[in-house]
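Continuing the series of single-chain predictions for the mutant panel. This is the parent chain; the variants come on the following pages.
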Amino acid sequence: MLSNEAYKWMVVAHNGSCTQINTGPVQQFTLIPLPDLKVQNVQAPVSAFSGQSIAIDWTVKNIGPGNTTTNQNWTDAVFLSFDTIPNFNTPPNTNPNLWSQFELPVKPLLIGTRANVSALDSGQQYSNSINFTLPVSYSQPLYVYVISNYPAGVNAPQQVSFINDTARAPQPVIVTLSPTPDLRVDTVFTPNTTFSGSAINLTYKVKNYGVLTPAGSVWTDKVYISQSPIFNINTAIPIKTPKANGTYYANAHDAIVTNNTQMLADSVYTKSLQIVLPNFIFGAYFHLCSHQCRQ
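Parent structure:
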């Protein structure tokens, strides 16, 4: 039965032998007109760099003959997809850093939701938007979808059709890898000879061969010792800082230096700290520093 359509009915009486003996008057009723939410005008940038924040805008219009009411509510959900045929029937991925096109089955990425901002009479509409920061590892075209009434809630309006609830931006967002900082340990200064178990002074210099480090980024420099000049975290030995009595047994802290100051391209910083060499080692060893970054 269709909404907003008139239907007629009547009661016909029969006796025990199914012979019609009487008919009632013709009655008429009309089903209440239903709304029809349509997602339209989904807008996203044509191109972006990884690590950049992008804005996604859309409009929801009630193209049905009926109105939604103030006690009805629904949610607009924004998705990214690697292709034009995403599967919305399975739970989406919600972690941007773990989302991959090589994951099978490939799921869309839910990047955010927005509640409806108002009830909609027939012909009315509202606009909404969301911002999303692309992870620094992204480098592929991404298709943007908006689904209204996702997932359908208890108080969501009944509609003429649900076909209009999904819409896609007219073009994909072409994501290009951003230039990144490139921090390198240029020089490490230590004594040429010393004894195992000794505390020594270490000075090292780090230079940024890439672009400006992002605002608010934090990274640590960690010191290791190895018999190989090529760093391998599986074979290198973490170095400790001395305790108050000059030893590192037991529970001494790793030799780590935290940095949170933005570094311009080609800029340099120099750090000095005291470290303790492990006991019971001898021969030629190399001091190595590694970087561990976090935002």
